[in-house]
Design brief:
This protein is mainly α. The protein has one domain. It has five helices and no strands. The protein has helices at residues 2-22, 33-37, 47-76, 83-114, 122-147.
Length: 148
């Protein structure tokens, strides 16, 4: 009896192995970063592709905003002896905010979109990324005004 159950388990294991060998046809993705940045890429349906495209389109406007605000601070305070202490927080937040806010929200948005099994164009990811950046600016401005 126990020998028969062992054969059954062993035959089930063979069946599982043969299932994986038969289903080894993976679809090849045509995802490229240039397609995302130039908005002419293929439709995306994988979670990793959507989250990366959304994160890129969130980080680029934020980096532009951080560079512009750093240049404005540099030119307006160019004669101040402690200018480095003003620019250093700008550079730090320009890197930390996209990593701490942009990456998780991009992943959550991508999960919500990919769970619907619909394909998404790079333009939709651009809209998601810009909306994330705008929301960061609104929250940051209202928090600044609330403390004043």
């Amino acid at each position: 009896m126990s020998n028969k159950s062992f054969e059954h388990v062993q035959s089930d294991q063979r069946m599982i192995v043969t299932i994986f060998e038969q289903n080894s046809n993976f679809t090849k993705s045509n995802f490229t970063l240039s397609g995302v940045l130039l908005l002419n890429g293929d439709q995306m349906s994988a979670w990793s592709e959507i989250s990366l495209a959304t994160f890129i389109w969130m980080a680029l406007p934020f980096l532009f905003y951080g560079a512009c605000s750093s240049l404005i601070a540099l030119f307006t305070l160019r004669k101040h002896p402690y200018i480095i202490f003003v620019l250093l927080p700008f550079f730090i937040t320009t890197i930390l905010i996209p990593l701490s806010f942009g990456a998780p929200t991009s992943m959550i948005l991508a999960y919500a979109v990919s769970s619907t099994d619909l394909s998404v164009s790079p333009a939709v990811c651009m809209v998601f990324g810009f909306l994330q950046t705008v929301i960061i600016f609104i929250v940051s401005t209202t928090r600044l005004h609330a403390t004043l």
